[in-house]
Amino acid sequence: MLVTQQPVLRRFWYAVMPIGELAAGPKPVTLLGERLALWLDGDGKPAAVQDRCCHRTAQLSRGTVAPGGAIQCGYHGWTYDRAGQCLRIPQAKDQSRPVKVSVPAFHCAERYGYVWVCLGEPLTGIPEIPEAADPSFRQIHEFYETWHAAGLRVMENSFDNAHFSYVHAASFGINEEPEPAPLTLEDEPWGFIMRSVVPVKNPELQKSNLKDGGDRTVRNNEKTWFMPLSRKMKITYPSGLIHIIITLTAPIDDRSSIINQFVFRNDSEADASAAGVIAFDRQVTFEDKAMLESTDYDVPLDLSAREESHMPSDRPGLEMRKRLLELLQTHGEREVRRTTAAPLLLAAAE
């Protein structure tokens, strides 16, 4: 699946950066091949327009935020509001004359401390994370960076119980137990929930993070896939500690993705330092990144094509492919080869 060739994917929300990145002024970002300029308007809310001034095509992200919160082109000073309307052309002799030019603008919002963008009319809302409003949980930002891998590969890997003993042998994978943990899937209108119980190693860094001195422990996993490219992984440990990893993937283009990751935990800094929590999760994600960046970026959705072989533990990833194929077929945005696909249920906004 080449994401830039599927217009329906423009109708979902993607987290593109922490909102703090905009404190110093406009920033550029590319989402699904669309170059955007982001900034904070006069109300401190993020805004997104095409990163191209309609005068001489200079990048608006190279400009500044004008008094009042509009974005001002750094080339000739043309100024635009969050709706893309040009408010002022400094060179115009009659400043009272209405300006009738504009640039394309896009849905943009802040949630959980991150900037979210939807390039079309949204099919669903921004994923709901109830723990974000629960005072018993703290939030820790982990990283924001580019991975040279397809977003769907990142999502499939997040639900793959078969790679732990190999990719994560140095962190939590138990080398002598390569058999994947059993799993169950529960369909939801916006994706699915996967549940599994996974025995894992408990290395020294995790012993401090978990307040568990044993060499092994158990993860009770509840993983939620939000179509198309967002994940919530809720890990409950035997002690009652809950560690929730939110991984948000925004396709830059067909080959690369922006990854934002943060966690919620029902403990405090005194229990486990944020630095220690980040250090272990970063070890794990660097292990994933190295492997994922070696994979093909064009993920085949049509399983009848036999372009890849599969095994039973691939079930969550195959379900993603079926659901995404059905999404493309339902919306008729591109011709794709037919195959048996799981029914797609969209949110009430459909």
Describe the structure.
- By secondary structure, the protein is of the alpha+beta class.
- The chain has two domains: 3-118, 3-layer Sandwich (Rieske Iron-sulfur Protein); 130-292, Naphthalene 1,2-dioxygenase Alpha Subunit, Chain A, domain 1, CATH 3.90.380.10.
- It is 16% helix and 31% strand.
- It has helices at 151-158, 164-167, 204-210, 274-292, 315-331; strands spanning 14-18, 27-31, 34-40, 46-50, 64-65, 71-72, 79-80, 86-88, 105-111, 114-118, 138-147, 183-188, 191-201, 216-226, 230-236, 242-251, 257-265.
- Strands 11-17-16-15-14-13-12 form a seven-stranded antiparallel beta sheet, covered by helices on one side. Strands 1-10-9-4-3-2 form a six-stranded antiparallel beta sheet, with no helix packed on it. The protein has a four-stranded antiparallel beta sheet with strand order 5-6-7-8, with no helix packed on it.
- Strand 14 and strand 15 form a beta hairpin.
- Helix 3 (204-210) crosses helix 4 (274-292).
- The longest helix has 19 residues, at 274-292.
- The protein is globular and about 75 Å long.
- The model is unreliable at 333-350 (pLDDT under 50).
